[in-house]
Amino acid sequence: MDPFKKQSSLITPFVTRPWMNQNGAAAAASSGSVGLKGIIAGGITGGIEICITFPTEYVKTQLQLDEKGAQKQYTGIADCVKKTVKGHGIFGLYRGLSVLVYGSIPKSAVRFGSFEFFKNQLADENYELGPLNRLLCGLGAGVAEAIFAVTPMETVKVKFINDQRSAKPRFKGFVHGVGIIIKEQGISGVYKGLTATIMKQGSNQAIRFYVMESMKQWYKGDDKNKKIPKMVVGGFGAIAGAASVFGNTPLDVVKTRMQGLEASKYKNTLDCAVKIWTQEGPFAFYKGTVPRLGRVCLDVAITFMIYDSFMELFNKVWK
Q: What is the DSSP secondary structure assignment for residue 171, as one 8-state letter?
């Protein structure tokens, strides 16, 4: 019997990873333990992925925060890396890492739990989604993670990175930094740029899940039980990640500006976008595309491949 037909009746955020329907490690997992296995495997995967790719996220954010004129600090990616290492050492490229580590597990839970919930409502008898429903499920997952996980996590991360740009950094660590932000700005201080984040994450996940699900169905063809090799899964993930980068980098730039320490200069998300366009030109919306492209492609590919590997291991040793 198809294990996913059994699991589809369980309303839980940890049913299974959506790209592993009838394939790979998650398909073999029992419904009783797949949630806990998924939490642990996802946490390990997220930690490894973040440690590998965070320097590119750091550079991307620095370039997006860098404005034209006398305040411009960097001439490009290499210059940003050089000045950061010279001023703060190699670990300067990892400032703000703790924020993403702390947020990786709830972020993953909300994203994939929401996707599974929406997919359970919209999938056909074969537990597959049509083109429109792929977009809708991905959009719903992105909006949910933006509200419950990504916005506070990203806001704090950007403020940490922005703080390092100042002559006298104020934040001594995660707890200390969050305490200062809430004390000075209230709880809304960690919810800056919510609208931009919803737009970014919604479009982000809509694109990724659409591309990923479409390529999986294309690869399997008429054989729904055909196994997809991990390298192929990683390649599909990289393509899906690249598609999402080119599709929503402008929203990512606006979100980053709205979450920076100088966000008060913008009235709202629309005002931020208008000022970037008028003061810096349309190409400013694609600042940080190259480092973000590298990070996201690695992120999505690594997540798919490592998660599948850990789930296979857990299913062998953890019955």
A: -
Residues in Cβ contact with 199 at an 8 Å cutoff, skipping those fewer than 6 apart: 248, 251, 255, 269
Residues in the chain with pLDDT values less than 50: 2-32, 34-35
Helix (H, G, I), strand (E, B) or coil at 80: helix
Enter the pTM of the model: 0.64
Contact 210, 6 (CB under 8 A): no
Separation of alpha carbons 156 and 106, rounded Å: 15
Q: At how many degrees (to 10) do helices 151-165 and 34-65 cross?
A: 40
The candidate with the shortest Cα–Cα distance to 88, out of 51, 58, 67, is 58
Tell me the HSE value of 23 on the side-chain side, using a 13 A CA sphere.
23
Assigned token pair, 190: 């960690």
Distances (CA, A) of 170 to 29, 51, 155, 162, 176: 47, 24, 16, 11, 9
pLDDT tens digits for range 20-41: 444 443 343 343 354 455 556 6
Angle between helices 34-65 and 77-88 (to 10 degrees): 100
User: Quick one: which of 16, 18, 20 has its CA closest to 230?
Assistant: 20
Nearest to 67 by CA among 294, 245, 261: 261
- Please state the separation of Cα 292 from the chain's center in Å: 11
Q: How far apart are CA 261 and CA 152, in angstroms?
A: 14
- Summarize pLDDT for 136-158 with one digit per residue, the tens: 999 998 998 888 888 887 777 77
Q: How far apart are CA 201 and CA 196, in angstroms?
A: 9
CA nearest neighbour of 66 among 76, 51, 52, 55: 76
Q: 208, 222, 206, 239: which is closest to 132 by C-alpha?
A: 206
Q: What is the SS3 assignment for 11?
A: coil
CB 162 within 8 A of CB 261: yes
